[in-house]
Specification:
The protein has 503 residues and is mainly alpha-helical. It has helices spanning 2-12, 44-55, 73-78, 109-128, 136-161, 170-174, 187-204, 219-233, 236-248, 289-293, 316-319, 346-349, 379-394, 398-408, 426-440, 447-453, 457-461, 464-467, 487-492, and strands spanning 18-19, 31-32, 85-86, 272-276, 312-313, 332-333, 335-337, 343-345, 355-356, 374-378. The relative contact order is 0.14.
Length: 503
């Protein structure tokens, strides 16, 4: 517990150092030093700095959390699925073959990141109450932003590890030395905590901000967090209502060109529900997705700097499930310009798979560090989630088919729509929706939870036709739908019990 308390002290102690997370508009870096509970927070500027220090926790450095590192939310969401492979050795000894143990690479970092981040958010909410110079309506909005972020992180933890011990009580967060460690809560407690935070946030958050405040939590972003929770819990009625509420906001629409969603020239487009603002030149706020996926000999056709670590790939088995005319496959590159100026066929040189180049080049990028905003949630997922909820409640109907076709319209020219008569019943449309989500949301960090929700994570992981040589022993078990709780957490708090199946 000592290490967790030390982390809490860093954000609530006598000498508080706050550095803002983001990088656009009102999210410019501000540093405070030599602060005490007597002189901070006092002003509206202090309050703003506190809130922005919470946003810092989405990134927490150059690589991790809501970025593209091998222990990031992205990789944790793709890990050991048919949508992900990697050249780096750390994945092959124990990870891909499902020889998982606590504290092993790559799935413990998210626990150690977001448990204290949630405590920090709780402390900041309490500290905001003491700022007399802060307008009440702005305080309400700030608290809603923090609750939305806290709801996101609680869902991330719940999705990966099951219910975990988090601090939502202000006294415990502000006085960590007197905090009495607790055991893991029930799943129902965790669900209600996530739901309460996000529901409160929806009420107080605006639909949109000015461009300079892009990256802050909005009403739609909080609703998206609820939608993810309800889909996870298969609460189809609430999922349907929430998805429709997002649609009815009238804020979001599909981009005409699929690959433009991630273009530097099309940032803040109307399909994006939540994104992390990025800059290429500021430490800790760059988008380094491209460096993680590009081969070392990749050459920019426009002569821009390029860095490639030849890491993540989309297996050819998954790549081949796309229709050959599907424009969404354009973000999975088979052919590229090599260092010798000649076109290279990755199918011949890269047996692990195609190159997932969802993010385009940034003319101001350094190669490793790019400035394209990192997209977390977008509108197409809302439409497909609504179609899935409708199917689970009522079986195939025209409304569900229309939602699917709305997403497919931009993927094919001429259009290649599906029809109601293509599906014999709920199960056949359910299977199709899983496939469609794979094509639409490929390499965005959704595949693991989608497969788990459809009860296919283990069977897919043990299927040699889908996993090639990544899990030859077919070692995936039912308990692998959750990651192990890190041993350090259990040593620090012996009341925490390990997930079933792990030593």
């Amino acid at each position: 517990m000592k290490k967790i308390i030390d982390k809490i002290k860093k954000i609530t102690g006598v000498f508080l150092l706050l550095t803002m997370f983001a990088c656009e508009g009102d999210l410019n870096p501000v540093v405070y030093d030599k602060l005490s509970s007597d002189n901070f927070p006092q002003t509206a500027s202090d309050a703003k700095a506190l809130v922005n220090s919470v946003y810092l926790e989405f990134r927490g450095g150059v690589w991790n959390r809501y970025n593209a590192a091998n222990n990031s939310r992205l990789v944790n969401g793709l890990f050991c699925t048919d949508e992900f492979s990697c050249y780096w050795g750390g994945y092959w000894g124990a990870a891909f073959p499902f020889f998982w143990q606590p504290d092993q690479f790559p799935y413990s970092d998210m626990f150690h990141a977001f448990v204290p981040a949630i405590t920090k958010a709780t402390a900041v909410i309490a500290q905001l109450e003491s700022v007399d110079q802060l307008d009440a309506s702005l305080r309400d909005r700030y608290v809603a932003e923090i609750k939305a972020a806290r709801g996101y992180w609680m869902y991330d933890l719940y999705n990966m590890y099951g219910p975990v011990t988090v601090i939502l009580n202000a006294e415990d967060a502000l006085n960590p030395t007197s905090y009495e460690p607790e055991g893991r809560p029930s799943a129902q407690w965790m669900i209600e905590a996530i739901e309460n935070d996000l529901t409160d946030a929806v009420t107080a958050l605006p639909k949109t901000y000015s461009s300079g405040d892009f990256g802050r939590m909005t009403k739609g972003a909080a609703l998206m967090g609820l939608l993810k929770l309800y889909m996870h819990e298969k609460d189809w009625t609430k999922a349907k209502t929430t998805a429709q509420t997002i649609i009815d906001l009238g804020v979001y629409e599909l981009e005409t060109v699929y690959k433009d969603i991630w273009s530097i020239n099309n940032e803040q487009n109307a399909e994006i529900i939540f994104a992390i603002p990025c800059h290429a030149t500021i430490e800790g706020v760059a988008n380094n997705f491209r460096a993680h996926v590009l081969p070392a000999d990749w050459t920019s056709p426009t002569g821009l700097p390029s860095t490639g670590w030849n890491g993540y790939k989309v297996p050819w088995e998954f790549y081949d499930t796309f229709d050959g005319n599907d424009k969404r496959r354009e973000t999975l590159q088979r052919f590229y310009l090599g260092a010798n100026g000649k076109e290279i066929d990755a199918r011949e040189t890269s047996p692990l798979g195609a190159i997932p180049v969802k993010y385009g080049e940034d003319p101001e990028g350094t190669g490793q560090d790019q400035g394209t905003d990192y997209v977390i949630y977008r509108y197409a997922e809302v439409l497909l989630s609504l179609a899935e909820a409708i199917n689970e409640l009522d079986g195939p109907n025209q409304q569900a088919i229309d939602l699917i076709n709305k997403v497919r319209e931009r993927a094919f020219s001429p259009e290649k729509q599906v029809g109601l008569s293509d599906f014999s019943g709920k199960e056949s449309l359910r299977d199709y929706l899983l496939a469609e989500r794979g094509w639409e949301l490929c390499f965005e960090g959704n595949r693991r939870e989608d497969l788990i929700r459809h009860n296919k994570f283990v069977s897919f992981a043990n299927d040699p036709a889908k996993m090639a040589n990544r899990n030859p022993g077919q070692n995936a078990k039912d308990f692998h739908v959750l990651f192990p709780i890190p041993s350090k957490a259990i040593i620090e708090n012996p009341k925490i019990k390990q997930n079933e199946g792990y030593n």
